[in-house]
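[Automated response] Your request has been received and processed.

Submitted sequence:
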Amino acid sequence: MSAMTNPGMEDRADGGDKGADRLVLEAIGASLGLPPQATDRVRFDGPDCLPSAFPVTALASAAIGAAGLAVSELVAAVAEAPPVRVDRRLAALWFGLSIRPVGWTLPSPWDPIAGDYPATDGWIRLHTNAPRHRAAALAVLGSAAERPAVAEAVRGWSADALEQAVIEAGGCAAMMRSVPEWEASPQGRAVSAEPLIAFADARKTSSAWRPTADRPLAGLKVLDLTRVLAGPVATRFLAGFGADVLRIDPPDWNEPAIEPEVTLGKRCARLDLRHAADRARFERLIAEADLLIHGYRPDALDALGYGETVRRGLNPGLVDVCLDAYGWSGPWLNRRGFDSLVQMSTGIAAAGMAWRDADKPVPLPVQALDHATGYLMAAAAVRGVAQRLADGRPTSAKASLARTAALLVALPRGPSEEAALRPAEADYAAAVEATDWGPARRALPPVAVAGAPLAWSQPARRLGSETANWPQ
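Generated structure:
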């Protein structure tokens, strides 16, 4: 599966009576190297239910549909390729929260000072959920850790100057740009030239693994080195079709607000790569894995001594899938970022502000860039496994939140439904999930691959709850 350029949505805007979800599915399918006729196996049902300046429901249903279609194509290696059905309502729900706690509550995912602030010449968003990012922003501002004090300090800065200062201090921030401003910027131009998913092939190898029609990914070992939020969405999907997902976190990392949402079906362990014994165990895990999914910035694994050449040396047959925030080229190559920041940078929040006729930035109704990119990564992972199965060539694949944003922005826009999604009892499975935090209900699967149900073998678990080993 050689690297390929994706057709832009602007090339498909004359799609006749095709819905937006079908248009974006075709664009994703082309990026995955799927036969054009394969997308005909996907059926979309249900309403558009995520009001926005952009067709977010279409992005959600198409991204999930593409991941399901990749599974269907894998099944075709051993049986007839099954049809795929996507429920738009459930897709929208899974782009928000799939879990409904019973008798307990999820904490807020946001630090109290995270958010949008007016500067002297526009708006800027500070992302302060991680302690080190919070400390960096406060140090630059010279402010107390209170929202009114931060707001007062931000008003003394231009948005561009503050963004740069926070980034240079090791923090995370993004000024609000318009779509044209982003597209004309050096980073916007770099991202637009990148493929939606960039594939590269490695040397031929061999693997004894084979799929089954009813549990297509059973027996695959997936090493998960991802954090909030796209990567965990990808590995959750893979676990739902039978993959053995082992998530590895450092000793001091926790995600209390989203662990119950994204650890479904996974085993979670901790390693400290500053210690020789943990590094040796980590290298054994890589050597035995089929898939590595990671969400580090381009230079981060290299700095730990595990660059792409090292990883490939440890495991020549490894299918390697990764993401970053702002793309894999351009001056922001190594910039830290998150969904909400990329929405500010790429013009999405500004377009929402104009659409809503609001006096402040208006983000998407869900963190759609994270979720969509997660399903794109899952699809790329399955396609990589399929190629290794077909000709012995393992692949690497790269995705980014900014490139997914470009896909969304290029979609044709039209009137948006004003009725926001309201979860109903019928949206959830009857069975109670015994998570580590308490009982919960999980939303019904958003995608159905005929004969291969999306189902998880274990409930959501806390990070670090198991040992870092593959099952024997």
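Summary generated for your ticket: Confidence is low (pLDDT under 50) at residues 1-17. The radius of gyration is 21 Å.
If you did not submit this request, please reply to this message.
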